[in-house]
Amino acid sequence: MNEQHERMSDVALTEETVLQALESVLDPEVPVSIRQLGLIQGVHLDEDEVSVALVPTMLACPGREVIAEEIRQRLSQLAGERRVVVTWETRVIWTPRRITASGRQQLQRWGVVAREPTPHGVRCPYCGSYQTRLNNAFGAAVCKAQFSCSICGSAFDVLRGALRPAPAEATSQSGDGDGSVHD
Ligand SMILES: [Zn+2]
């Protein structure tokens, strides 16, 4: 093995530096940082391990594996000798309220709605009308649903976690090895 990754000193490894590093890990379906999306539930450091607990926006989200791998890669240098462990807190329910203000703005720019529907329904991000309807339950991706607006004709995506915050379905979707829970 060569020494091409210069290890950062242990002093540099804090919860905050880990969080900062995770700032550059984007959700595979919307180009917004997982930190801004509120996916990070906690970071824990000890002598042998850096563990990151995440909350999925939807239990069966296929992006989970991609995100976990990104995190491991992103943190491998910072973590030095420590193992990087990614876990999913499936008991915690992600809601759009976890998204930061900046994350929300970024989503809006991509035409993705990440708010809980009001009693009037889902609001069009372009014209503000509530006269919207669900086009396709599976939208552009499993985690998003595509809506269209009858007033301005725009199509937009709504993060599915925003529509159904508590799907209590099993995680049996795509077999094991999808980075679900490590110990
Ligand atoms: Zn509209």
Automatic annotation (TrEMBL):
Source species taxonomy: Bacteria, Bacillati, Chloroflexota, Ktedonobacteria, Thermogemmatisporales
Top-level taxonomic group: Bacteria
Organism of derivation: Thermogemmatispora tikiterensis
Record protein name field: Uncharacterized protein
Pfam families in the record: FeS_assembly_P, Zn_ribbon_PaaD
Signal peptide coordinates: none
Stretches assigned to the PaaD zinc beta ribbon domain: 118-159
Entries under InterPro entries matching the protein: Fe-S_Maturation_MIP18 (IPR052339), FSCA_dom_sf (IPR034904), MIP18-like (IPR002744), Zn_ribbon_PaaD (IPR056572)
Domain MIP18 family-like intervals: 15-86
